[in-house]
Specification:
Shape: elongated
Number of domains: 2
Distance between the termini: 30 Å
Order of helices and strands: HHHHHHHHHHHH
Number of helices: 12
Helix content: over 70%
Strand content: under 5%
Length: about 210
């Protein structure tokens, strides 16, 4: 269940708050790049990955223009990486840094064709539609679909005792709100208020605040 529920929260918070412009997108990319990207890869792949990661020094120095230039330069090489997971991870980061939303959507469509019920990627599709300023009805339908996928997982008896279940429930409420159902804002408030686990309550409050205080 965790693979369906937790990524939704991470994706929602990270991308909605961080991809409103190129600089903020770069910030989100740097955070993602800090995750362990390199495991057992070929020497050729490693060389490209090292070059890609070395360019983040420009971001850390505040030289965003040079950082974007370097991302443009390294993209063709990244596209040659043989490790599919690492290649697509880095490609998506570069597309978002450069605000190449059409390319990002094409890659997202390809990934969803492989895993249609991946809530992180489904949510990302909704966020791309928002960034591209698509019609609100299309965006709402997208988030409704995310909520439907989450509901299927939540309704499975084997998931009821899963440690991530309550996060999944909150994710569902959040998706419904993003789908244009305004009443779910209050439902989220009530859900947080009724949460007994203080650590979880603090996490949900933080997630709520990211959406409504920015």
């Amino acid at each position: 269940m965790k693979k369906y529920l937790t990524p939704f929260i991470l994706s929602t918070v990270g991308l909605i708050s961080a991809c409103s412009n190129a600089t903020d997108s770069a910030k989100n990319v740097e955070k993602a790049s800090s995750e362990p990207v390199v495991k057992a890869v070929s020497a050729e792949d490693q060389k490209i990955i090292d070059k890609y990661e070395s360019y983040f020094k420009y971001y850390r120095e505040g030289n965003f223009e040079e950082f974007q230039k370097k991302m443009i330069e390294v993209l063709p090489e990244v596209s040659k990486i043989s490790d599919k997971k690492k290649r697509e991870f880095m490609q998506m980061n570069i597309y978002m840094t450069l605000q190449k939303y059409e390319e990002a959507q094409a890659l997202n469509d390809k990934q969803l064709a492989e895993k249609p019920n991946d809530t992180a990627r489904l949510t990302f599709r909704c966020q791309l539609l928002t960034l591209q300023k698509k019609e609100s009805t299309l965006i709402n339908k997208c988030y409704d679909n995310v909520a439907d996928v989450l509901k299927v997982e939540l309704d499975k008896p084997e998931n009821k005792t899963n440690p991530d279940y309550k996060i999944g429930e909150f994710s569902y409420l959040f998706a419904k709100y993003k789908a244009g159902h305004a009443e779910y804002k209050q439902k989220m408030q009530e859900y947080i208020a009724e949460t007994k686990d203080e650590k979880l309550k603090a996490s949900l409050t933080s997630l709520y605040n990211v959406e409504f205080e920015n």
